[in-house]
Amino acid sequence: MQIQYSYRAIDKEFHEPWQRALGNVIEHALKPLLDKHTKDSVRLQIVLDRDKIKRQFLASGYMHLPGKKIVSVTASHDELTPLAQMLAQSLFRQAKKHFDRLHAQDQIKRKARRERLRELKVRIAAKPASAAHEAEATRMPLLSKLEAVARRELAYLRAVGDVPRDYPTLRDVVDEAIVQAEVEWQSVPEEKGLYALSSGN
Q1: pTM higher than 0.90 for the full model?
Q2: Which residue pairs, CB below 8 angstroms and at least 24 apart, start in 42-47?
Q3: What is the pLDDT of residues 43-79, one digit of tens each?
Q4: In the chain, what are the domain boundaries?
Q5: Which fold has domain 2-101?
Q6: What is the mean pLDDT of residues 142-164?
Q7: Per-residue pLDDT for 193 more than 60?
């Protein structure tokens, strides 16, 4: 996790105790949750301020999570250690809510993908056996190219946070591309056309 600290109207003597207090509580309360759900480095921006009237410490946290989500929380307290605990607990709750929502969306997407593949396989089964054999014989030499393209695209989509790290898998993407190509198969095209058909381009 990358943590960036900023300060407003805070004496330097409080900087190190604040970073130590927050770092300790994040290590125990938040890091296990993040490690469970993402391999990507999570960026956390922390701003420590002080209320000019009440003289309380005010803390704000902005955490960048997978799925292009930014979690924003605030807390206030007279002392740094309780403030760090409050802020970390708020970050934990918001992050857990986000990951639970992503998980629910993933389950819906997986169910829809399974149903779509079943429908496509029914359409393939209705084709003559000769067409299926012809399609397989033509696409097999191109399978490694298709896997390379799918691997590269998945890596990019995961890096920018458009898809979770564990779904869809490379096998999911390749299988769906192959089934889609077999459904649309008419006759033996030239290699470039087959590759475009298999990769969905």
Answers
A1: no
A2: 42/1, 42/2, 43/1, 43/2, 43/4, 44/1, 44/2, 44/3, 44/4, 44/91, 45/3, 45/4, 45/6, 46/3, 46/4, 46/5, 46/6, 46/22, 46/87, 47/6, 47/7, 47/8
A3: 899 999 998 887 899 999 999 887 778 889 999 999 9
A4: 2-101, 127-199
A5: Double Stranded RNA Binding Domain (3.30.160)
A6: 77
A7: no
